[in-house]
Write a structure and sequence with these properties.
By secondary structure, this protein is α+β, with helices and mostly antiparallel strands. Strands 3-5-6-4-7-9-8 form a seven-stranded mixed beta sheet, covered by helices on one side. The protein has a two-stranded antiparallel sheet with strand order 1-2. α5 packs across α9. The longest helix is centred in the C-terminal third of the chain and has 18 residues.
């Protein structure tokens, strides 16, 4: 809504940008962007939500130990699609970057499984690590609009599900207890108190369920990974939790098995269920 003199604008492909925004626009095309410099761009929603029956999931996957390399970032874009993924620097990462996808349905993410596997192989070959670090997380956002204007009701159900299955979720996350306490802690409050803090914009983002963003809710609990099975199992679990939270099913009567809705989820759970956090 601001007015700028023509001399202060830069033309790119027929569109005009002020000096502040032009760098954000350019960084989406190549290399590693600065921290949160790309977040002002409008998201592209990919996949069919079937009239909002399914959420859109946006992934933030941190990788470390391989360098903040523009060339590597561009190769990842070549593999995954320049309109689907971009990279940003992050102060919590020692020697790497964060890979951020556009919001997409689980079905869309899984339609790109071959590309994800190629991306993970490439990053590992270049020396990057995600699980085998103390710095990397796998964060999954979903769109608040999925809750159809009944945010308080469904967020309260979501928080109750996370609280009920906290022990299983921490095993599933592959994080250590110290790492959870630092980056994705448990609320240990009543949902009504948490919602009040959310509405007052007085809420820390370093919780397992981050409610500080205006347009998305973020699961921060999961450790980073370059293993496609753990990666997709994580997306499937988040999708299942979010869909269950918007249903009319009883949380009191629900079991952990109600969330293990795919063969991949069931198989992955067998590999981590005895893990000591």
């Amino acid at each position: 809504g601001d007015i700028y003199p023509n001399d202060d604008l830069t033309e790119i492909d027929g569109d005009y940008f002020c000096n502040y925004c032009v760098e954000n626009h350019r960084c989406s095309d190549s290399g590693v962007c600065g921290y949160h410099t790309h977040h002002s761009e409008y998201p592209i929603f990919l996949g069919d939500s079937h009239c909002n029956m399914y959420p859109y999931l946006g992934v933030e996957l941190e990788v470390d130990k391989g360098g903040e390399s523009d060339d590597t970032a561009d190769k990842v874009k070549d593999i995954m699609g320049h309109d689907f993924i971009y990279q940003e620097s992050d102060g919590s990462i020692s020697d790497g970057f964060e890979n951020i996808t556009q919001p997409a349905t689980l079905e869309y993410h899984e339609s790109k499984e071959d590309a994800y596997r190629a991306m993970f192989r490439y990053l590992v070959k270049k020396g990057y690590r995600s699980h085998n670090t103390s710095t990397c997380g796998l964060h999954v956002h979903f769109n608040r609009s999925f809750f159809n204007g009944n945010e308080d009701k469904y967020i309260e159900r979501l928080l109750c599900i996370v609280d009920k299955f906290w022990d299983n979720l921490t095993k599933f996350s592959r994080r250590t207890s110290a790492n959870i306490d630092r980056w994705a802690k448990k609320y240990n409050k009543k949902p009504t108190e948490i919602l009040a803090e959310m509405h007052e914009h007085y809420i820390d983002r370093y919780y397992a369920v981050n409610l500080s963003n205006d347009d998305t809710i973020e699961f921060r609990l999961f450790r980073g990974t370059l293993n496609p099975n753990s990666f997709f199992a994580t997306l499937e679990l988040v999708n299942a939790i979010v869909c269950y939270s918007r249903s009319d099913e009883s949380i009191d009567r629900m079991t952990w098995d109600d969330l293990l809705v795919t063969d991949r989820l069931k198989a992955y759970w067998e590999t981590v269920k005895d893990r000591v956090v």
